[in-house]
Design a protein that fits this description.
The protein has about 80 residues and is mainly alpha-helical. It has two helices and no strands. The chain starts with a helix and ends in a 30-residue tail after the last helix.
Length: about 80
């Protein structure tokens, strides 16, 4: 569940729990609203915790100029000097 879905569940749950006053005979919309709100809050907390976890950082340290694998050719001067 992502952050947007969690916020949507919280909003829908609070609307059902606090604003809707319809009797459906056997279905308690207020209870369903509170359940959706609690699930949304748990999902929001889990999403934020997972989003804030440290990610591994990969650093590449290249040598410039690259090391020589063979001796330099004496006919050409070294451009580094």
């Amino acid at each position: 569940m992502r952050i947007g879905t969690s916020i949507g569940l919280i909003a829908l749950g609070l609307i059902l729990a606090l604003a809707v006053r319809i009797d459906l005979g056997g279905i308690d919309l207020e209870l369903i609203g509170w359940i959706l709100t609690i699930v949304g809050v748990i999902g929001l907390v889990a999403s934020v915790v997972l989003a804030r976890q440290a990610r591994p950082v990969v650093r590449r340290e290249a040598e410039y100029p690259p090391p020589h694998t063979h001796p330099p050719d004496p006919r050409y001067p070294d451009p580094r000097y």
